[in-house]
Amino acid sequence: MTKLERKKIALPISSVYNDIETHSVKQVFIESAKLIRAEIVETTPSHLIDTLNTLIEGIYANEILSSIQDAPEQLENWLEQHTTRWNPALGNQNILTAEQAKFGITYCDQALAESGTVVLLNENNKGRSVSLLPEIHIVLIPVGTIVPRLRESMRQLHQRIKEGKEVPSCINYITGPSNSADIESYLVVGVHGPLRTIYVIID
Description:
Elements: H1 15-22, H2 25-35, E1 39-43, H3 48-55, E2 64-66, H4 73-82, E3 84-85, H5 93-100, E4 103-107, E5 110-112, E6 117-122, H6 129-132, E7 136-142, E8 146-147, H7 150-162, E9 170-174, E10 179-183, E11 186-189, E12 196-202
Parallel strand pairs: 1-12, 2-3, 2-4, 4-7, 5-8, 7-12
Antiparallel strand pairs: 5-6, 6-9, 10-11
């Protein structure tokens, strides 16, 4: 008997994968996000505060819950003045606040261009309720966090583990606003989460 040789097989590649190879990951991410009904706002670090002020205009701080750690000084000052911060010491009170909040503001750790997905590492000071319970979810997305596909996301997380860095037990992959089409085949938005998701891309 002769030993079977493993032959290389060219696997089919979807058009979105081709797009990632030929266009910038940022643009592919934007196009993917539009398909999943996420709203896109583009800004720069110097205009981020103005952008946030426009998005939350007329909303009081007790209606805006945020869970952002280690923010740049200007953003940190804005969060202190205009939002209620997630506080682990308050326990379940955070969840009650999230239930009543109009906005939840988070900072994504990764974003996947192929699907318009944002990745949130939910650690001690970054409660997952902030992205789940408020009516509107605002995600701040630095362009540098966008990777082409899920495999690059997994590689980065694996590298963190190899370097001895902590990885939280809860990692959320969120693809746009809550959608469900299992109710008489009609698409219903907001059944299991926010009615709107706004991606603020910081370039």
